[in-house]
Amino acid sequence: MKFLVCISNVPDTTTKITFTPDNKEFNKAGVQFVINPWDEYALTRAIELKEAAGSGTVTVLNVGEADTEPNIRKALAIGADDAIRVNAAPQDAFFVAEQIAAVAKEGGYDVILMGKESIDYNGFQVHGMVGEMLGIPTVAPAMKLDMNGNTATLEREIEGGKEIVTVTTPFVASCQQPMCEPRIPNMRGIMTARTKPLKVVPPVGEPARTQVAEYALPPKKQGVKLIPAENAGELIKLLRNEAKVI
Amino acid sequence: MSVLVVVECADGEVKKSSLEVATYGAEVAAMLGTTATAIAVGEATEANLAKLGEQGITKVLYDAEPRLKDFVNNAYTKLIATAAEQEQAKVIILANSNIGAAVGSRLSVRLKASLATNAVELPKTDNGQFVVRRGAFSGKAFSDVVLSGERKIIAVKKNSTEAKHEAGKTAEVQSFTAQLTDADFADAPTQVVMQDQAGGILLPEADRVVSGGRGMKGPENWGLIEDLAKALHAATACSKPVSDVDWRPHHEHVGQTGITVSPNLYIACGISGAIQHLAGVNSSKVIVVINKDPEAPFFKAADYGIVGDVFDVLPKLTAAVKELG
Ligand SMILES: Cc1cc2nc3c(=O)[nH]c(=O)nc-3n(C[C@H](O)[C@H](O)[C@H](O)COP(=O)(O)OP(=O)(O)OC[C@H]3O[C@@H](n4cnc5c(N)ncnc54)[C@H](O)[C@@H]3O)c2cc1C
């Protein structure tokens, strides 16, 4: 089984979000970038399934410029076999999906996994676009993935419950918890990652279909209004009469 | 130039988030000088679909094919794409739900449309550009995106617009068929399992949420959370460590790696307010924090707070809600 796992490079969760003075770009200065947390589920599950089958390969794919390579190496250290970087700044979900679809077609992958969304753009879009571009099923968001030969059984989250879906390869799934416990690299993994192949390819396809005109920050909170614990009931009156939410 | 709204239904009823989307769609249609048609997916009654007139929808298309009761990505995509072609829809609006996101992304490729998900406001059409404000950076910012394609798809975040109810207005319900074949149902679910929802309120759609963290000490104390939730007609939720140790089911876990919620009222009980938790709840309109540690980071994100012991405070709050009647 050939797994293709898509990872995106995102600001660490604890990052304070700021923008350039014209509000047109995210301010990267001093920001630590990590593998998108949702993608870690996809990566770990692919490695687990490969190990359980005793054969197969896990390729990681990132659409990004050279500064994403430390996180690609981290994915290799976690257990992926090789990596591909499409050398382009990700413009929008459509552009990224086109790159993934092109790589997937070229490499003949059986299972394409990714996280449900990235924690910076919060698009929740790439999975469906890739599935449609390749004309194969997408299961999104998937909470469980088991494979039996070419047949996969997935649990897909729906509002208020889950669907059990069976598909045959090739397919796309976007992963979320509680699919697995994401792995962290160990020393041996870090050492071997240095020698694993990382191929850089140019971007393909059409231009992006959306452009960010501007970023904005939400209005600052007024500050917390504290109610003494002895008068806890007072809070309920405030929620009704002042905040008008009950 | 019509507007097509995708309305999700379950058990015969239109979902709350779809009533919001219907209102949003009708407002976009008014902006563009046209009318809004809905395509209903899931199981719906004709009477409930006709009531979408209250949200400003003029016509509702419905395909009564029984296999469409459960979500099937390929079949739903084809159904909605067929309706979009029939109606010559230039703008398609969906809920930013698990169905909306799955279908919206496939549709955007099929219809060559620009897609904005997680939209939090009505679009702006100044200077000939079509701009949608959407949530980004896990609720820590917004991005205004220009949808440059001929066709546009918008997935609207739950609870970010209010559904209007103009009593007495009805929509015309028309039967519709997308000529679906067996192949369109190849990815149909083999089983659908619904979870027990506290008081029947779906967490992702809830107006109010009462949530507990590790400060609740153990599952045996969840009655305190449930009592307040019941009194407030709220859904219940929890922090990640609580679901990790199985005090509560995974579908109640909110946060960066759990469900994102944006209710009008979020009450956090014994939750520290770690940034990963905040990422899933920080777009709630009003946040209340109850924590015995005055230094708990959650107080910084809160509108109202009580520094106190949850075991003492929660029963008082429940009693006060009951007193309100
Ligand atoms: C990659 C990643 C993703 C994550 N995703 C999520 C996520 O999606 N959701 C999430 O919630 N977390 C997530 N976390 C975990 C997060 O960092 C915190 O560990 C978690 O939110 C803490 O949960 P808690 O506040 O319930 O517990 P604690 O941090 O243990 O806090 C308990 C709080 O209860 C208070 N307390 C104790 N007793 C009482 C009492 N009797 N009365 C009142 N207050 C009391 C304490 O003062 C404390 O503030 C993630 C972490 C990582 C690294």
From TrEMBL, chain A:
<dbReference type="InterPro" id="IPR012255">
    <property type="entry name" value="ETF_b"/>
</dbReference>
<keyword id="KW-0813">Transport</keyword>
<dbReference type="InterPro" id="IPR014730">
    <property type="entry name" value="ETF_a/b_N"/>
</dbReference>
<feature type="domain" description="Electron transfer flavoprotein alpha/beta-subunit N-terminal">
    <location>
        <begin position="23"/>
        <end position="210"/>
    </location>
</feature>
<dbReference type="Pfam" id="PF01012">
    <property type="entry name" value="ETF"/>
</dbReference>
<dbReference type="InterPro" id="IPR033948">
    <property type="entry name" value="ETF_beta_N"/>
</dbReference>
<dbReference type="InterPro" id="IPR014729">
    <property type="entry name" value="Rossmann-like_a/b/a_fold"/>
</dbReference>
<protein>
    <recommendedName>
        <fullName>Electron transfer flavoprotein subunit beta</fullName>
    </recommendedName>
</protein>
<keyword id="KW-0249">Electron transport</keyword>
<dbReference type="GO" id="GO:0009055">
    <property type="term" value="F:electron transfer activity"/>
</dbReference>
<comment type="similarity">
    <text>Belongs to the ETF beta-subunit/FixA family.</text>
</comment>
Automatic annotation (TrEMBL), chain B:
<dbReference type="InterPro" id="IPR029035">
    <property type="entry name" value="DHS-like_NAD/FAD-binding_dom"/>
</dbReference>
<dbReference type="GO" id="GO:0009055">
    <property type="term" value="F:electron transfer activity"/>
</dbReference>
<dbReference type="Pfam" id="PF01012">
    <property type="entry name" value="ETF"/>
</dbReference>
<feature type="domain" description="Electron transfer flavoprotein alpha/beta-subunit N-terminal">
    <location>
        <begin position="3"/>
        <end position="192"/>
    </location>
</feature>
<keyword id="KW-0285">Flavoprotein</keyword>
<dbReference type="InterPro" id="IPR014729">
    <property type="entry name" value="Rossmann-like_a/b/a_fold"/>
</dbReference>
<keyword id="KW-0274">FAD</keyword>
<keyword id="KW-0249">Electron transport</keyword>
<feature type="binding site">
    <location>
        <position position="291"/>
    </location>
    <ligand>
        <name>FAD</name>
    </ligand>
</feature>
<comment type="similarity">
    <text>Belongs to the ETF alpha-subunit/FixB family.</text>
</comment>
<dbReference type="GO" id="GO:0033539">
    <property type="term" value="P:fatty acid beta-oxidation using acyl-CoA dehydrogenase"/>
</dbReference>
<feature type="binding site">
    <location>
        <position position="214"/>
    </location>
    <ligand>
        <name>FAD</name>
    </ligand>
</feature>
<dbReference type="GO" id="GO:0050660">
    <property type="term" value="F:flavin adenine dinucleotide binding"/>
</dbReference>
<keyword id="KW-0813">Transport</keyword>
<feature type="binding site">
    <location>
        <begin position="270"/>
        <end position="277"/>
    </location>
    <ligand>
        <name>FAD</name>
    </ligand>
</feature>
<dbReference type="InterPro" id="IPR001308">
    <property type="entry name" value="ETF_a/FixB"/>
</dbReference>
<protein>
    <submittedName>
        <fullName>Electron transfer flavoprotein subunit alpha</fullName>
    </submittedName>
</protein>
<dbReference type="InterPro" id="IPR014731">
    <property type="entry name" value="ETF_asu_C"/>
</dbReference>
<dbReference type="Pfam" id="PF00766">
    <property type="entry name" value="ETF_alpha"/>
</dbReference>
<dbReference type="InterPro" id="IPR014730">
    <property type="entry name" value="ETF_a/b_N"/>
</dbReference>
